[in-house]
């Protein structure tokens, strides 16, 4: 690949941005803000399109990413070329979003309108992150190619455009943060004179969503018309990073040198060796490129940096090989999972860097002015590889959930793993649609010596609401078990029979229920006291192992519910528990009556010296 003539890369950034382009960018930013606000409003109100499982995530992904691509394209791409690129990008986003919802099982339409907002059908976080990275790479390739009117541009153009976009995005986010800091400061100033209009406006979604998007478009435009500033910041950053390279080479080289003496067993015992080694490889790649830059500054690179870059390129291959071996051991023992398939995809990309940079370190070694010029070819080729890998991972072709489920099912069928050790929960909660379909097959399985056990486990996991729910739950404690768990105070008091007979496993406020009501061989102190004076006693439960001390009472329907609780961690106050056990307390009416609005009761907390309860214990 030929290098561009000196200075050509800088001309690409100095294109004149007309007032029409500036206006168009600001309008796109405003339109993005309006679209995202409408989507937010629909989600809050549970209205169309938020009720459509496939439409809402697609619109959300388009609303977040496509306007950013359009803002960056205006002024750099001809209208026709920009339209084609936006159409292609939008089509890819639609396909990715639709498949993402489908693989997760979708959410039915026609939701009810509960008090709390249910889980919305949104793009998965992993898809959103991968889409941002993938479209960043693709956009840099498109803009660089358009600037030279070539399908494959010279490397300096790719370098300049990618770094320009990265710095634009970083400074645009910084601009938004500073803008909101100033706005909130302004609201605080007005609050000093009892004017809260600005504070109320800033909290409104119809204001902060469009303003944020509009500010982002402004920042993207301002950084685009000041290329010299972008170039200066980039140069300074890369020079600083390049001087970290010798230290990194020394550390990585020392690590590799120590392996023959320490062995690899300690490395495997960490169970995350592959991720650490991949992170090391990524750091080496970034620092090598910080030293190499656009390939035209080699003559001015310090000798220690140049030597370190060559050594780093050679160290990449053993780091990659050890990571591959570490992953292969985990796969051999436990099979493929979604995380391991993602790691394998990263290792595939790392292989291009490891072998490519190793070749570049040897090529052109005697020519100081053209050191490691093969890095340019490797970077361009690997950029396309990264895009291909991302598309494969988020499509049916290389879906990590599909591949991992197929592998785990094959291991179970072949007897490589026994049903007792098989992770059925992985299929249910990590296998997406494919895992649930596999569980349904196992639920109806009739072949094999372990068919009965497999059916039982598959049925139990299919009924589980979360991955932490035990497949074989401990049987609910019987009344005699609950009575044995509780020490009743006062000593002559007696727990109501209905309290002991209640099935506490189905209590709605699960996080407040003391463990002594849900499992055997746990202990609580139970204080039977008529707190409300209606002739029916309530039960106050306290245990040092549970932060909350709930007060259980019987409602009009005869069901025991949580009617109140003591302050957080009050159960750890020894003097409080001692006085309650001895009956050394009195019940006092609230000094201020409660406030009732539209049938909702609101307790007024006392002020002054009674702002909070404190345990009188010296400790």
TrEMBL record:
Origin species: Janthinobacterium fluminis
Alphabetical keyword list: Membrane, Transmembrane, Transmembrane helix
Protein name as it appears in the record: DUF4153 domain-containing protein
Residue ranges crossing the lipid bilayer per the database entry: 21-42, 54-75, 82-102, 122-144, 165-193, 205-223, 235-261, 273-292, 304-329, 341-360, 380-398
């Amino acid at each position: 690949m030929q290098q561009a003539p000196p200075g050509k890369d800088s001309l690409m950034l100095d294109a004149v941005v007309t007032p029409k382009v500036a206006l168009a960018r600001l309008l796109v930013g405003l339109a993005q803000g309006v679209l995202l606000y409408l989507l937010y409003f629909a989600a809050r109100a549970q209205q169309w399109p938020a009720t459509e499982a496939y439409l809402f995530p697609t619109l959300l992904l388009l609303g977040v990413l496509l306007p950013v691509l359009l803002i960056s394209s205006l002024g750099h791409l001809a209208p026709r070329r920009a339209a084609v690129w936006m159409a292609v990008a939008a089509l890819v986003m639609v396909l990715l979003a639709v498949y993402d919802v489908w693989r997760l099982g979708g959410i039915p339409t026609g939701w009810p309108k509960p008090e709390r907002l249910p889980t919305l059908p949104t793009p998965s976080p992993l898809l959103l992150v991968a889409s941002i990275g993938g479209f960043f790479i693709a956009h840099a390739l498109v803009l660089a190619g358009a600037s030279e009117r070539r399908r494959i541009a010279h490397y300096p153009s790719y370098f300049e455009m990618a770094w320009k976009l990265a710095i634009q995005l970083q400074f645009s986010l910084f601009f938004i943060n500073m803008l909101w800091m100033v706005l909130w400061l302004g609201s605080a100033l007005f609050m000093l004179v009892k004017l809260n209009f600005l504070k109320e406006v800033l909290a409104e979604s119809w204001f902060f969503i469009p303003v944020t998007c509009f500010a982002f478009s402004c920042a993207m435009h301002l950084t685009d018309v000041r290329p010299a500033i972008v170039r200066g910041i980039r140069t300074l950053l890369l020079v600083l990073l390049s001087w970290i390279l010798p230290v990194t080479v020394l550390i990585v080289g020392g690590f590799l040198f120590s392996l023959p003496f320490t062995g690899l067993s300690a490395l495997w015992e960490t169970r995350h060796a592959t991720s650490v080694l991949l992170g090391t490889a990524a750091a080496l790649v970034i620092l090598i490129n910080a030293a190499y830059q656009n390939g035209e500054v080699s003559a001015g690179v310090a000798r220690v940096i140049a030597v370190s870059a060559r050594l780093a390129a050679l160290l990449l291959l053993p780091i990659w090989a050890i990571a591959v071996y570490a992953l292969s051991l985990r796969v051999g023992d436990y099979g493929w999972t979604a995380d391991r398939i993602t790691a394998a995809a990263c290792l595939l990309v790392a292989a291009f860097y490891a072998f490519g940079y190793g070749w570049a370190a040897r090529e052109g070694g005697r020519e100081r002015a053209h050191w490691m010029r093969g890095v340019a070819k490797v970077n361009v080729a690997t950029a396309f590889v990264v895009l291909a890998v991302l598309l494969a991972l988020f499509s049916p072709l290389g879906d990590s959930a599909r591949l991992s489920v197929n592998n785990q099912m094959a291991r179970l069928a072949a007897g490589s793993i026994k049903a007792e050790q098989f992770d059925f929960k992985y299929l249910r909660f990590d296998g997406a649609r494919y895992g649930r379909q596999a569980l349904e097959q196992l639920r109806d399985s009739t072949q094999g010596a372990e068919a009965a056990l497999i059916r039982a486990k598959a049925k139990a996991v299919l009924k589980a609401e979360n991955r932490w729910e035990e497949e074989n739950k401990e049987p609910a404690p019987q009344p005699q078990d609950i009575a044995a768990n509780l020490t009743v105070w006062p000593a002559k008091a007696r727990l109501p029979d209905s309290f002991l007979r209640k099935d506490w496993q189905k209590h709605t406020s699960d996080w407040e229920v003391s463990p002594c009501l849900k499992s055997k061989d746990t202990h609580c102190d139970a204080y039977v006291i008529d707190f409300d004076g209606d002739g029916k006693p309530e039960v106050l439960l306290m245990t040092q192992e549970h932060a909350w001390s709930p007060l259980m009472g019987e409602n009009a329907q005869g069901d025991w519910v949580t009617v109140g609780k003591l302050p957080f961690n009050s159960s750890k106050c020894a003097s409080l528990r001692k006085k309650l056990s001895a009956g050394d307390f009195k019940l006092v009416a609230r000094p201020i009556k409660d406030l009732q609005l539209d049938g909702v009761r609101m307790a007024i907390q006392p002020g002054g010296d009674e702002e909070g309860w404190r345990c009188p214990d010296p400790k």
